[in-house]
Design brief:
Elements (H helix, E strand, L loop, with lengths): L8 H9 L3 E8 L9 E8 L4 E5 L6 H9 L6 E6 L2 E5 L4 E2 L7 E4 L11 H11 L4 H14 L15 H13 L5 E5 L7 H18 L2 E6 L2 H7 L2 E6 L2 E6 L1 H6 L4 H6 L4 E10 L4 E6 L6 E6 L10 E6 L4 E5 L10 E10 L3 E8 L3 E8 L9 E6 L4 E5 L12
Parallel strand pairs: 3-9, 3-10, 7-8, 8-9, 14-21
Antiparallel strand pairs: 1-2, 1-4, 4-5, 5-6, 10-11, 12-13, 12-15, 13-14, 15-21, 16-20, 17-18, 17-20, 18-19
Bound molecules: adenosine-5'-diphosphate and magnesium ion.
Length: 397
């Protein structure tokens, strides 16, 4: 369906500049709710972008998506699609769901069991009074898009879980939405199928070039699918940006600990500069000095005790030769070694550090009880002062 509202030249020019979705200051408290389910959320989604809302259960992801779809009314805030007013709270303006041109897929398949695949997918077209011949064509096209060609007459109950979710996706796509909302669409599928759907969605996204607002609590899904991510906690966006930014430059401890695994090394600042770059001498290591960035608003001074947050894959682990630990490394004893297929996950009692979790190459395994050398990558880490804990109401950077 084309945007029949963008008729005037001025309006088309405006929508060419505007993001596909703009959310500004969206807030929502449920009746009887203690706290805001969503608190002053703002973000933009561009055409052709997958933007992911990531966060633990109950952080407000579904509520946000439902406000965008028109299934929930925000207390405050505005929603625009390509410059078009969808919700303007101060004017009490709210377009009904069927006037928003959004496709939505939920976690539970929500396809109708008493209908065939074709009837399911055609349903939103029927409510829009599309002609029968056009309907048939568009259903066939939608089925092609989700890799289920020719399945029109199959009764819905005879579909596998993966097929049902594809039908739900086809039903969302058949109206040719500008905006696709996906709420944990793959979380009911098994791990293999989930991976496959992830790849297919990425390919589909490239073909359709629409804006996708994707919700998941699964960080792998978020990191691998998204152009940008907003990581939420307690209704508040903690950080938003490209996956790599959240992974490599977490804005606060919540982000650091939610995305990926981190080993926290203890050390002492040897020098710092106003840009936040600091050099840290790692405890227990001989001449082991590494570099990282601090986001502490108060800055870090030489001599201060700190934590360096390091991704486990950024610490090289190898068996100690003749029990010796070279300069730049930390010695340790392997207390547990878990072979996971692609790598070995070690728990190491490290000199001056205590227990660390690190990942080693499967080609050079170390056995439990043996001595290992741990060599952290020299730079690119985040540094945290050991007495800086985020206040519960601190929204972070
Ligand atoms: N219909 C509702 N009525 C009251 N509280 C709700 C309702 N839906 C969600 N909540 C609450 O709002 C918060 C956010 O929920 P939700 O948006 O579903 O989170 P998520 O999708 O991230 O798991 C939670 O504390 C949840 O309990
Ligand atoms: Mg949810």
């Amino acid at each position: 369906m084309t945007d029949s509202n963008a008729t005037t030249a001025g309006r088309s020019a405006a929508s060419a500049r505007e993001p596909a979705v703009r959310l500004e200051g969206l807030s929502k408290t449920y009746p009887g709710g203690q706290a805001r389910a969503v608190d002053a959320l703002s973000l933009d989604v561009q055409d052709g972008e997958v933007f992911t809302l990531l966060g633990p259960s109950g952080c407000g992801k579904t509520t946000t998506l439902r406000m965008v779809a028109g299934l929930e009314v925000p207390d405050e805030g505005d929603i625009h699609f390509g410059g078009r007013e969808i919700v303007v709270s101060s004017k009490r303006l709210r377009l009904p769901p069927d006037k928003r041109d959004v496709g939505m897929v939920f976690q539970s398949y929500a396809i109708w069991p008493h209908m065939t695949v074709e009837e399911n997918i055609a349903f939103p077209l029927a409510t829009r009074h599309v002609k029968r011949s056009e309907m048939r064509e568009r259903v066939a096209h939608a089925l092609d898009l989700v890799n289920l060609p020719g399945l029109q007459k199959r009764p819905a109950p005879l579909l596998s879980g993966g097929q049902q979710q594809r039908v739900a996706l086809a039903r969302a796509l058949v109206i040719e939405p500008k905006v696709l909302l996906l709420d944990e669409p793959f979380s009911n599928l098994d791990a293999k199928l989930r991976e496959q759907m992830r790849v297919e969605l990425k390919l589909l996204q490239k073909r359709l070039n629409i804006a996708i607002l994707f919700v998941t609590h699964d960080q792998i899904e978020a990191l691998s699918l998204s152009g940008r991510i907003a990581l939420m906690d307690l209704g508040v966006v903690q950080q938003q940006g490209p996956p790599q930014l959240l992974y490599e430059e977490p804005a606060n401890e919540f982000v650091r600990d939610f995305i990926g695994k981190t080993a926290l090394l203890r050390g002492e600042v040897t020098s710092g500069n106003p840009s936040g770059q600091v050099a840290v001498a790692v405890h227990g290591g001989a001449d082991c000095v590494i570099f990282g960035r601090s986001y502490d608003p108060d800055g870090l001074a030489a001599g201060q005790e700190v934590f360096i947050a390091i991704r486990p894959e950024d610490i090289d682990v190898r068996p100690a030769e003749n029990g010796g630990v070279p300069a730049g490394a930390i010695g340790g004893v392997v207390s547990a070694a878990l072979f996971t297929g692609e790598r070995v996950e070690y728990q190491v009692e490290a000199e001056g550090q205590g227990t660390l979790q690190v990942f080693g190459e499967r080609h050079a395994p170390a056995s439990e009880g043996s001595m290992v050398c741990l060599t952290p990558r020299p730079d690119g880490h985040s540094v945290w002062s050991s007495n800086w804990t985020r206040a519960p109401d601190d929204e972070g950077a």
